[in-house]
User: Fold these one by one.
Assistant:
Number 1:
Amino acid sequence: MKEDIKKTPKVKAHISPVIITLVLVFVVSASAFLLGMKAFSSANIHTKTEGLSPEGQDLLGDALAKTMRGLTNIQIAGKKYYEQYCMVCHGEQGKGDGFNAFNLDPRPKDLTVVVKTTGNEALFKAVSDGTIGANGRFQCPPWGRTLGEDKINVIIAYLHALEESFSRDTDIH
Amino acid sequence: MDKSALGPTHYIWFAAVGAALAVATVALCIKEYAREWKHHQAIVKRLQIKAVEEKIKTLESEFPSVKEEMKAKHEERLRMMRMVRAQVLANPVKIQQIQIDSLKRVDRCTTCHTGIEDADMKDQKNPYKGHPGKYLQWHDIENYGCTVCHEGQGLSTDYRHAAHKPLRGLDRPWQNAVLSRYLIQSSCGKCHLDKEVPFAPLLSKGRDVIEKAGCSGCHKVRLYENQEKIGPSLDRLGSKVNRTWFLRWLSNPREYDPQEGLIRSRMPKFNLSKEQILALEAFLMASVNETALKEPVEGGDPEAGGLLFRESRCVTCHLVEGKGGYLAPELSGITSKVNKKWLYNWIKDPHYFQPRTKMPQFNFSEKQLSDLVEYIWEEFQGEELEIPKEFEVISSSDKDTGEMVEHGKKIFMEYGCTGCHTKTGIEQGRIAPDITGLASRDEERLEWGNAQGVDKYIGNWVFARLKDPDLLEKKAKMPYFPLTEEEMAAATMALLSDAGEDIPSQYVVSASDRENYPDLPGEFGKIVDKYRCRSCHVVYGKGGWVSMHPLDSEGSEVKKEWLRGYFSLPYSLRPILPERMVNLKMSDSEVDLLVNFFTTVMVNNSIAGDKGTFTEEEVARGKRLFDKYGCISCHIMGKDGGYVGPPLTTVGDRLTAGWMFAYLKNPRYYEPWSIQPDYGFSEEEAGALAAYLTSCKEMKKDIRVSQGK
């Protein structure tokens, strides 16, 4: 009789603990797998770089940055070849006002303008094969065999930075 | 209660510890597993696949519009792109390692920088970026790795421990940080031992500065162990200089020659007290030799002397009021430095007083000598120098001369003056520390003195020593060198190229050793020594401080009569150059010998020389080619032309046709420093041009070149 009085306990959906464990293990493994496959990597990984900046004044670095006027290594190499081969006609700042420019008709091009309006392939071709004027004569000589591909490429890299390097404020902030 | 039975608290502790252990294990596993390099590799892979897919897409879209004959090639490219994509997809995520046994390095940099060899990735940010420039093509990554150039810890696979940013402190995990920006040029110097290193101009400049400043006089510097001393001998100084001038010179050399940068007077400024200067002066001025000096002949004509001065082109080597060459001292104000008797004797016989001097022995007659001395004495009148006030007080010291001289000698040896100057009776080795292996010095163990606010990097230490020796060490023995900031930075970088590493010989790039060339023998050698041809020219591998023109093929290059005329009266060959050959006033027999030697010995068999005739058609064709190629842009021909190369109006009198032919076909082989472009002339074109140019003589009487002698 006592069983009748006793309320029948609610029948819970009794999930076996084994099932729960297995489900948990599955979820954990799946997420670990996906994490390992870096499915969630974004391109903005914040690499921990705090606390690593140099303490104190970097004398050498500052001196180099100032005297190199913000040019990269490749541009500095290009500058050296520019000064040796191109500067005499095109001028130190590329404006077409070099030492020899006034003997030439037409005047050498202002390279700071040319580099903005001409693509790199066309520039390379102009330097490598030379340019021919309206009267059928060579203007800029063909430098391809003299300089070679690598040197012409670094000179072109320098031309892109030429104007900026002369107008740049050389104070270190 | 039974004590041995475990109560509920024990169970709880047991569970808690077990759970903590489990959590810790899982956490550690996750930490070990979730490395940052895996992120980077995944991203690089994604970017690479994106780039390849874009290429495939463009190829596929182009396909219908491709011409028939190109279809096969197009198919091929498409297939290759698809293979590349499959390959990239199949790449496992793992640690990438490059092991270079010969350099004893293991580099894992490509674990994060996986895209470094990929040309498509050049526009990305680091660490996904492809390597700029062609450097990886010249130094393939399998044989060089990364850290031999970039430094840093190659074995590490995370940002911090790879020393991308410098790590400081005595217990730092790695000493050499990854070199920033310009400093990488110093790494080029590890293997490239020449002075001129292509694509590393800062390093080349730095090595030039080290050579000119004479660092190897006091320090042992790699590559400069055998360099000659850069200063003059100090024998007979008492007969040479004025005492007041000398006191001022020792206190501050820049006062006499206040030019910026190294190419002028190179004596640095020492930290000497007034007593030390006086003692040194007593010691050095005690060296007197009046018997060797002859009395000058009086009554010279300054105007004739002035003419001679300009004719002899003394400014090729000497400075006059800041303008001129940089090989020899400033001449304006010379009267306050030396006395007239010394000047006369010096110009008469420089090699007796300074055996290693670069000055040639001019063949002046007695009259010419006295004219010249009179002109110099009048023209370059220096102001009356006063003894600086500080010295006046101490001048009247009660030390007797003998003691002062002894004291001076001690100071002379203490400061290592023999590093630059020779002095008979004093032999000394290098007094300053060895600076080989500079890049691997431990910064924490260096003496930083007053420079505590400076970042502790070896480059900063060296730079500070150059820029302001007092900053690091009060009353330092190292003097202050008159360099511009750029020169100091470049020299620091060149010094840092020595990390004390033993580079295997297959990596080293160095021109053959031309240092110990013997003195030239015979009569030719005597003339070369007398006139010091090697001060300006490279003669058999040695010398060449002014002229870049190689003389080895000179006999085949120029015409004999022209050469004879040139030795007798040199003139300016290229208007753009301020330097030209000095007029040495050689005797006829000497000129004969030189001309014969050049045309017999210094010839090049591959050049045809003065043989051959040319037809009128060839000459006309040459003239047309001369117009077409725009030679007049750089060379003067007739009335107009450019100033870059030598004038060609009368070049037929100067150069041989054979040499012109050979030069036009391959300029850099015969004249390494010229900027004559290589036009790729055919044999006919070069021959026609040579024909035309040979016809360009002073008197255009004959367009046919006569048979050689």
Number 2:
Amino acid sequence: MPAKRTVIFGFLGTKLDEGHAADRWDRWRPTVALCQHEDLLVHRLELLHGSKPSDVSLSSLIERDIAHVSPETTVHRSVVDLENPWDFQQVYGVLHAFARAYPFAPEKEDYLVHITTGTHVAQICLFLLTESRHFPARLIQTSPPKRRADIGPGQFAIIDLDLSRYDQIASRYQEEHREGVSLLKSGIETRNAEFNRQIEEIEKVAIASKAPILLMGPTGAGKSQLARRIWELKKQRHQLDGPFVEVNSATLRGDTAASSLFGHKRGAFTGAVVDRPGLLRSADRGLLFLDEIGELGADEQAMLLRALEEKRFLPVGSDREVESDFQLIAGTNRDLGVSVADGRFREDLLARINLWTFRLPGLRDRIEDLRPNLDFELDKFSRATGKRVSFNKEARERYVDFATSASADWRGNFRDLNASITRLATLATGGRITVVLVDEEIERLRSSWRRRDAAIDGSLTELLGAARFAEVDRFDRVQLADVVQVCRESRSLSEAGRVLFAISRAKKSTANDADRLRKYLARFDLTWDAIHSS
Amino acid sequence: MIELDGSVGEGGGQILRTALGLSLVTGSPFRIANVRAGRERPGLMRQHLTAVEAATKVGDARVTGAGIGSMELTFEPKAVRPGRYSFAVGTAGSTTLVLQTVLPALLTASGSSTLELSGGTHNPFAPPFDFIDRVFLPIVRRMGPQVRAHLERPGFYPAGGGRFTVEVEPVRTLSPIEILERGDIVERRATAIVAGVPESVAERELRVVERKLGWDPSCLVKTVLPPAFGPGNVLMLEVHSSVVGELCTGFGERDVRAEGVAHHAIDEMRHYLGSQVPVGVHLADQLLIPVAMAGAGAFRTMPLSRHARTNVDVVNRFLQVDVAVSEEPNRSCVVKFGVE
């Protein structure tokens, strides 16, 4: 492979390169010196200079001098006219146009941009255009000989702005990345590969993008916690300086939903006695975590979309738009794609928020992370209460055995674990969690999960009547309860069918969801109307 | 393929230039590894590439590894092509070193050549044009080929811009030569050149020569060149016997007084004169290849420097000629070629 040719871009130094008399050789002239280094062979020098007669004559002398000291170098002079070489916008514009028009051939030529000559503004512009790869080049900086008596070319240093090429800088970035990831994981040494992969990705996205992030996952999977950590990370990296604002959309039902989010003018409606800024404005320059976003009403969805797209919106009862620049993280535990199909969620809003979608697994799906989370919860308790708490060895083994066994349901995921550890730690006299305490706690967890089963049983009894309920196998109860739940949330049998058979629908393996659902309900002597009238 | 290690001996660019010259002479390809290993800036530098390029043209050679910083180079010449060549050399290199690389092969080439060399003609760390013209080439002519050099314009470091031409009428084989005794010095000359530097500098240098060496004022020549040729200042001291000559130089430098420049050249000249050998250190370097090409001959010189010993080793790798170096009394040595 033939070696690439070296091409240098640089401004004529109207002061530094100056001199017409023979004694000019006694001075260090950066542009000439560039071509005098024994270990730098410049094949072409692209010399940029102004159109003033003095610039033209100096640049032509420089060209002649370079022909003497470096016959290997071709000097190509270009006039770049700068009315005011200290005007940033003008200099940038001229150099940008120059770079855009230049026939770069990086496969054949190696480019360097000389930043020792030219005004400071020119140097800054060259730096920026090199960093943005408009000049696909490295920078070269030159300096005069260290000893005054030395009439040699001095030194040069080549600076590659591709920071990944520097081991020390790269390892510093690695360290920063590790710190970021660790922060997102709240310092917990999680072992689940899928979870860790997602966090790595979130770290990159959080630092590189201001676009909305969608966190999916079951209740208690840690969406809210993660959103807060993302805010902390972005704040640490100076990407935002506003607050963390958190709201669960499920709590925003009714008339006041819009005013909670978008604010209102005093007197906008009965009870609006003072101006209210609303959560979106409170989150200006910060981060808004909108959990259960699927629960948002249609009007609020429309307003949110506009607020995201234009960073402006209209408070309730106001005729003047307000601005708020916030980063949105949305949380959901339902499949918003299905909600869109049902017409309950705006497709355009979903498109806007699911650029970056992450699915957080529940505790059961990353049970290997139970131990580190257990330690984390204990630490957290100790820090919050100032009381050092620990398991004794046997107690810890028994707890972990149960917690990681198939019979541990962890329906509420990390929220359940947090509650469980809080209970244990609170009851631990002398800071020791004993086997007795653990056994009691295991019983408590079991019964709380059973109570949730009991809740299912209760609602089915109500719907079917005690006699009919007694005929339903335990095997069918949970499924039926979920089907009934979906029917209640749906406006029609067809809508419920679409939700329940979403996957078969996608595979086009079922013809009529509504019919299938009707037949299923009929097995329990249930009808659509019966469910909705109860 | 002859394998050379650039890190042994003196290990500088000289091994490379000697190898290039001998490869052209013999047609033997070579590979050199570890070029300038262990230097602050290792590998090939521009001045070496200039020599490689010149040799490549003259020998129609195939080359790999000819790049700045390259630590390994292979050079395979096809055939020496006499003719007209122009070599432009950056001032960091020296035109005389490029000449030294390509000249030996042209001395026995199939036709005459004209070389035009431009760049620095009077640089520190390289023989100046005057040395080539008045000390080296007269001996080459005694070996058969008619070689004439003509300086059109001197070029000094760093501005360069000098130019000279060399006409070569080759012979089939070089005649052996023996230079064992110096004979009486019959001619002395001190030349102080200034260009773009005050005339008084040249005058002061010559005054020191007059005082220290006791040379007759008629031997002292002041040359004032147009400022555009400069800046440059060199003091050249030369002596000739009927057999051989020597030329020592001092270069003007910023912050070095004219007297200091003169002392440098004078010390070197005194060392030569005091040693009683006919062939000085610099001439010995230049003669090594032509005398080895002749296959026989000898010269007496000062004890060989590491630099010169490295050169002898490289000559031994290329040419089927025995080179014997014998230490003699009075701190001299005889380099003998073609001994049985």
Number 3:
Amino acid sequence: MQPTFSVIFFTVSSGAGFGLFALLVLADFLKPAGGLGAGQSLVAGALALLLVAGGLVSSLFHLANPRNAWRAFGRFRTSWLSREGVFAMAFFPPALLYTALAGLAPERWVPVRHGVGLLAALLAWLTLFSSGMIYACLKTVRQWHTPLTPVNYLALGHFSGAMLLLPVAQSGGSQADFYRYLALGLLVVAAAFKAASYYRIAGSGASLTLNAATGLIRGQVRLLDAGHTHGTFLTREFGFLLARRHAVWLRAAVFVLGFALPLALLLRTISAPAGAGAAIAGLSTLLGIVAERWLFFAEARHVVNLYHGAQRG
Amino acid sequence: MKLGLVIDLDVCVGCHACAVACKQWNASGITGPLADYNPYGAEPSGVWFNRVRHYEVGEYPTSKTVNFPMSCMHCEDAACVTVCPTGASYKRAEDGIVLVDQDKCMGCNYCAWACPYGARELDRASGTMKKCTLCVDRIYDPALAPEDRQPACVLTCPAHARIFGDFDDPNSAVSNAVRTRGGYALMPELGYSPTNRYLPPRETRAIPTEGLGKPGLKERLKGLVNKVVRR
Amino acid sequence: MNAPIQFENHARQEVKYTTCYMCACRCGIRVTLEEGKVRFIQGNRNHPTNQGVLCAKGSAGIMKQYSPARLKKPLMRKPGAERGSGEFVEVEWDEALVMLTSRLGRIRETDPSRLAFFTGRDQMQALTGLWAQQFGTPNWAAHGGFCSVNMAAAGLYSIGFSFWEFGAPDWDHAKYFILWGVAEDHSSNPIKIGLEKLKRRGGKFVTVNPVRTGYSAIADEWVPIRPGTDGLLALSIAHVLLSRELFDWEFLVRYTNAPWLVVQTPGEPGDGLFLRDEAGNPLVWDMEKESLVSGMQAETSPALFGEFAAPDGRPVRTVMSLVAERYLDERYAPASVAEECGVAAGTIERLALEMAQVAFRETVEIETTWTDCYGRKHDRFVGRPVAMYAMRGIAAHSNGFHACRAIHLIQMLLGALDGPGNFRARAPYPKPVPPHQLPENDLSVIRAPSTPLLRPPLGFPTRPEDLVIDAEGNPLRIDKAFSWESPLASHGLMHMVITNAANHDPYALDTLILFMANMAWNSSMNTGSIQDMLRQKDPDEPGEYKIPFLVVVDSYHSETVNFADLVLPDTTYLERHDCISLLDRPISEPDAAADAIRYPVVEPDRDVRPWQEVLVELASRLKFPAFTNADGTRKFRDYQDFVVNYERSPGVGFLAGWRGKNGDKFLKGEPNPKQWEAYIENQSFFAYHWPEHMKYMRFANKDYLETAAEAGFIGRPEPIVMQLYSEPLQKFRLAGQGLYDGPMPKKLTDRERLARYFDPLPIWYAPLEQRRVDKAEYPFYALTQRPMMMYHSWDSQNAWLRQIVSQNRLYMNRAQAERLGLREGDWVWVESHNGRVRCQLGTMEGCQEDTVWTWNAIGKQAGAWGLNPDASEATRGFLLNHLISELLPEKDGERRITNSDPVTGQAAWFDLRVKITKAGPGETGAWPEFTTLRRLPGDDAERPEVLRWDVRGNSEW
Ligand SMILES: Nc1nc2c(c(=O)[nH]1)N[C@H]1C(S)=C(S)[C@@H](COP(=O)(O)OP(=O)(O)OC[C@H]3O[C@@H](n4cnc5c(=O)[nH]c(N)nc54)[C@H](O)[C@@H]3O)O[C@H]1N2
Ligand SMILES: Nc1nc2c(c(=O)[nH]1)N[C@H]1C(S)=C(S)[C@@H](COP(=O)(O)OP(=O)(O)OC[C@H]3O[C@@H](n4cnc5c(=O)[nH]c(N)nc54)[C@H](O)[C@@H]3O)O[C@H]1N2
Ligand code: SF4
Ligand code: SF4
Ligand code: SF4
Ligand code: SF4
Ligand code: SF4
Ligand SMILES: [Mo]
């Protein structure tokens, strides 16, 4: 699929936002090294909310008929897109309340804060999971149709969240080692799952062929004529084909920018906390994840391409 | 009822009449108009509900050419309906026809992603998704003569390669065709249970040629005795 | 919940029945209108031709009716502007007609043959032919000459009907069907309907075609023949049938000239002609009476084989003996021809035996009593259910006439003609072989000012005396039809008109009228030089063109319109009265004689007039006798009045239905003033269903022959004897050999061609152009095919159809392409002896290895057809025509000869050979490029970025 910027920005930013918020609430419970200061919680919470909101707004851009967008919550029962919308909307009130309480009245209504915090974190996970499931539930795109897809969304969400939480944690002068180890841990998990999904895609897997798509079995089937000289909605929407050599190069970028460089920088900040190591790592992570998300869409091969002559799905 | 189409690949000559008749009927039909982009310009394209593709099976000189019309299969397990967030995409309980309610669609393309058969196309002018309606505005129209209550593509097909009917009725033309000709669904393993069926090309009938005539006329020509034929 | 489904508001709609003209198959259409605009066009279920179906073109009529390419008003070339510059001024109809009438009047009063009037696929030859005859010019034809005259002539000189328009396979009974060289043809819907019936009933469908697309895609067996060798394959099949005595004795003896005796006196006048009695009857040897008797006489038992002596002692042999002797020769054995045809010997043998098996052992019987022309009663028709059909794959070669006769030879051997399950005639055929109609060739009549010709401009010569030449043997027609170069050119040579007129050879024209023919583009060979010829100035007449005045009658902005001095805009097929007459190319089916009309179902929103009306108007103003009363007043008010009242012979007019005072007579009857209304009430068509006993063996069916004579289809109710051996051809051969007591050609080239190609029995020879071109340098055969969804150049203007195909590729066999290092999508140079083009390559399996092909007429000149100049038809589409020359490659000492069939003058489009090389880097886009056509004055039509057509009006128009 031709990856569009609005889709990439939406998924990366809201992913990071939900991840950051969930970790913020966790940190509030576990209080590692005394937990974050009110100011830090406020900044982290607001940043998370901002990222989530930014992501949701951008999702409107690739609607061809936005005036019906309000209906997008209607099919909660069957549609992951509806569910994502509902959970995302439900997330805002408790998340706002939590951030306000944590940032402005850290000592008061602590059980209330913890309650809404947990609720918001739960909704964040559900939203992230839904975002992944939107793609994973499609039997038409082999590369997406796997449990690894939602897992990747969750893992990358939390990893990018952790990378945003780290500079916030460092800023208050309080002990940030927990957050460094947290980011490291999530980095390794995210990298592992990403590697697993790339491995799965690279494996031949039971991909459909043009013979199967047409049910013609007496010999190899080839496209003679697609029935239209120029493109159609189908070829424009699904016909984008990423050359294998680009895919390899891009995957390398994902791992270098997304994982290797941040790993090195994080390890350095552990030994020498001063300096902008964390910020650079955060930036590198974001770039890596944008590349990952671009590749996620670019490598998707919709089964309809078989009918336009692709030999394998 | 489970309404749908049977396409006979043995006789479809790939003339595109079904695709154009569909475009003609539906341009002023219930989800019309169907946008045509750059119609008189460099690269014309537009919204079609039915597209005919042409394939070849095997190698020269024994290759077989197969013409392959495709429109919505009106699947029983239509993921295009379940994924749609707005409820614009729906499947009618009474006859299984899958439609898009143009007043509800927000044009997110998600249903097109969920359709393995490429049966949905976004109309950029109206911002809504459009698809084969199984000519629901013809097949139930009491003002039309019974024999005309057929989809436009079925009526127009010069090779009578398209049959419309109820797959739930074992005696319907579609059921009979599927039974007698081994009609098959496309990519059943995807689990969509598409209703439309395709009839594979028929086997060629062998013609005996033993013991025909009396060889060696050339040699016998000289002394040939004419057969007596009275005029 | 979801909105309920809205049905059509039928109260606002109206249904009218008329005839489609998105191609020349002329299907019956049911047009639903809403507030005068076309809502939906579908097939008319009751119409004999299409029985309710429509093709893609027919279903896209709306986008032709509202096309931006429609002409709006008469145009004159702007004074001072060069022809071809496309600079016009709008003129009123009255002014245009006054000017045209005076010019035509001047021509008619001096030398009528200075007017040439040639038409395309207009289906109106009965009217245009009559008009030309009444004007007095022999220079008229439709475009059959470059279309498929080989099929028409071969059929009408052999079996009395033809593959071209006058016959159809019996789809209800056929069990074996061979299709030779057909991609779509005129009766395209009937063939599709028929193929499904054939396959459903278990019949086998074999296609002989270098390309496996369209009909051939669904064939049970594909024979990928090498182009131009079908005649050889057919004669090899005849060899197999003959060698095993697999032929129908009764059919050959009773219904063909197989038993007729042929004089064998080589080197002497009269050699090869039939032995005839004093009354002129051909003689046969009666085995029981052991004497010569008339071949037309009943109660005889003629010998099929044998050598005998004429009363004067000259040796004579039966036609069948000559047939057997020739085709049993090893030259025609499958093994000998396999390599040339590219078809395995075993396959040829098997195909012949399969035909014989089905013909002789799987007969079809229709139990109906009938009487043959010899008075014998039969209780059934016995059909040899092997049906065949053939068209331009056979026709469009310089050996096509003989190839088609070779196919008819197989049908005659099998007795598979006009019987149940085989190839049957369509009324008004069969007719005598050849039809009794000779072309006007009396110089004094032709030169006589203001005098109609006594005979029609076209006909069927039977001997050199019938040619249209002067005393010195020079052609009298501008296209040299019926000259020594093209003796049996029964449809004329439209593809030579512009070339000959520009060269003033045989003479100069004053005015050329082109109606419904795109001669400056896809209808001409050598398109580029044809455009140059139209621009060519006359050195002897300063300021004049070699072709002084060009009138183009078209409905749309075609490439040819751009060259006109006067453009007369016609209506669309939904806006005019028209009739599809039995006097022209009938829409009859084998089971029913039929004709049809069109009438306006939509009001034209432009200042346009039907050409039919203009012809009647011009005829009246020029006082043609047939259009003028004795007192000099005009006889016909308009075209409708003409169709109702004109009688070609007493009781026989343009329309056969609802004749007679009160409309109760059919086929023949006095004019019925309410005939148009009767047609409109009956869904615009009339069908006369033959009774069961008149449906078959009509060449010898007593009751049918009597009805046909009564209806004026044939002169007298006499049997129509099929001609295996063609005496007319032999007469021309004798003339070539200098052995004919009558006109003979003076030029050596003509004598050689007559002697070689006018063999009375079918022969095969390598196509002419291919013998003058180095096969090694030009290894590929190059062909075109009809795309099912477009009609010639007419449909690139169609916004819907254009989305299916708006660029053509040159297709090549995939393995062959790989051998040449070429791949799908490469830009390549394609070169012939006559020119070169650049285009994109396509690869496929279903294409014979030495053949390349492309879709016909997709390439367009930029700016034509209402398209933007950057349309892919102009930037990437191409015409193969640029590579094809209308003249054969030059041979020293020989005048330039037409690149056509030497017998009929049929244009040999598919004899082309080319070489193909990959284009260099950066060499992309179609070449040659032509200047971009200017928009015509008055062309205010919208070309929207997004078209949202909807009959209820919010179309972006
Ligand atoms: N849709 C549509 N229908 C049309 C027309 C159109 O433009 N569009 N044009 C109309 C007109 S004017 C005509 S004349 C008819 C023509 O109708 P067709 O007779 O179908 O003519 P072509 O399309 O020229 O196709 C010629 C066929 O013969 C094959 N062929 C070429 N050379 C040889 C050969 O040497 N041997 C054999 N066996 N096959 C060969 C080609 O592959 C092709 O399939 O169609 C009419 N109908
Ligand atoms: N390379 C190659 N060239 C070929 C052929 C081939 O097989 N290969 N086939 C040849 C054959 S068989 C034929 S028949 C010719 C094409 O046969 P033609 O009849 O010459 O068809 P066109 O060239 O499209 O020209 C028809 C013209 O009529 C105009 N027209 C359409 N409708 C109407 C109407 O209602 N009224 C009037 N007045 N005009 C109208 C169209 O706009 C167009 O300009 O092509 C020939 N050219
Ligand atoms: S109209 Fe009939 S024959 Fe033509 S492409 Fe469609 S299904 Fe095939
Ligand atoms: S073919 Fe596609 S659009 Fe039609 S019901 Fe099935 S999934 Fe939905
Ligand atoms: S494009 Fe329309 S019909 Fe399709 S999923 Fe989105 S809202 Fe539903
Ligand atoms: S059933 Fe109707 S809407 Fe569907 S493809 Fe056929 S004509 Fe089009
Ligand atoms: S074959 Fe098609 S274009 Fe030709 S008359 Fe019939 S419906 Fe019209
Ligand atoms: Mo033609």
